[in-house]
Write a structure and sequence with these properties.
By secondary structure, this protein is of the alpha+beta class. The chain has 18 helices and 23 strands. The protein binds glycyl-adenosine-5'-phosphate.
Amino acid sequence: MANQEDKFKKVISHAKEYGYIFQSSEIYDGLSAVYDYAQNGVELKNNIKQYWWKAMVQLHENIVGLDSAIFMHPTTWKASGHVDAFNDPLIDNKDSKKRYRADVLIEDYCTKIESKIEKEVNKAAKRFGDAFNKQEFISTNPRVLGYQEKINTILSRMGQSLEKEDLVDVKNLIEELDIVCPVSGTKNWTEVKQFNLMFGTKLGASADSAMDLYLRPETAQGIFVNFLNVQKTGRMKIPFGIAQIGKAFRNEIVARQFIFRQREFEQMEMQFFVRPGTQKEWYNSWKENRIKWHLSLGLGEENYRFHNHDKLAHYADAAADIEFKFPFGFKELEGIHSRTDFDLSSHEKHSGKKLQYFDHELNESYVPYVVETSIGLDRMFLAVFSNSLVEEELENGSTRTVLKIPAVLAPTKAAVLPLVKKDGLPDIAKEIINDLKWDHKITYDEKDAVGRRYRRQDANGTPFCITIDHQTIEDKTVTIRHRDTMEQKRVAISDLKSIIDAEVSMKTWLQKI
Ligand code: GAP
């Protein structure tokens, strides 16, 4: 656990030190759970957006994009169920006066049991060496099975109690598990209460006529209310999808774990409209498609798992999370939800407008069913960033910090380094940059010894370093150094573009899906 915490602290400090993420309004001591993406962070974030957009919109003829407004008519949120049901169960500790999400306290308790499982696995792996079969061990070892059963029982009871709105039982569960407040260390808890997560604001100048609005808590509703506009103007035939990337806002009470749970964040969502009765098939197909997208980035198959929901949201008939192994354990990265016709039917009722599709093959009109994929952009950022940050022992006994961000997502693709600041080498470096910058973000660095510059670029996550030396003047060749292998090769300047393209082009990576 301490190890995990140390790793997480390193992730946070590295993100700041290397210009990826800053606390919002830091000069005023910051704003809790709100973050700014810095010079490198914004590039990584934009690259993730592009990787998602190309995979979802550009590569699917039947998916189109949308960019709807953050403000929506307030009835939207009545229809979607958010006004009545977008609540978190909260509990206060009377001694520390700290407020917690009751479900998160219970989940954290389960995470601790999970780390016990991991310890058992690591111990056994050491004992059995090469002969160790992890899958077999997990499914047969009595201690591991006991831990897993305990987790399942706890989560299933919590799911059922939340589903039935039985908040008394949620509190009973916290007491039975002897969960204490991390600050006061006591079990002096209040009752569990529901708290709505939407931020309210007002539209209009005068107090009497101002309209109460909400900042959208998800981007999906902008897609639902535009369903018919897009279908008609785009002449879309079912099945088809509408995708959108945009900000969402939630008044999160337990705001910790860095950018994992923020009050202002970004979602990348796609609503796929299907014929009623076919939703199960599409739900399975999107689960498969999305996990392939994740695996294509090479962050390690062992770092992903599906979690099928026991407790379904008010709109869903099936739901699963893709969980990722963050530095604080496996947590939700993306949700795939079979949302039935709940949203469109509800908007029909509240607006009095028909939101139906005429299916020429069936010769009938219906309200389509919807399968949604919804991923948090900031969580994806954290997954990529935390997974990529490694400390490596080198052969000479020294260590290096390297950010092995998948090359396709790296903020800067190459750094161009003149060996010395004279003899015309900086001019050649500038020429190379001027040639490459049309396709890629390239940086220039002439300060310090070249070894230190390599380390700096490793820590920044730059996949290539290109070094210009005196031989370059003679034969127009340079040294290209690869971030991950540290391998260096002498290549012609004229080959640089194709060498970089081959490793960073979205096409190469997306073809793995
Ligand atoms: N439209 C469905 C929906 O919003 P959700 O599970 O509440 O479903 C989808 O959110 C995704 O948005 C999550 O899987 C997560 O990645 C991201 N997300 C949710 N709340 C977040 C928060 N407070 N901070 C950062 N990301 C968040």
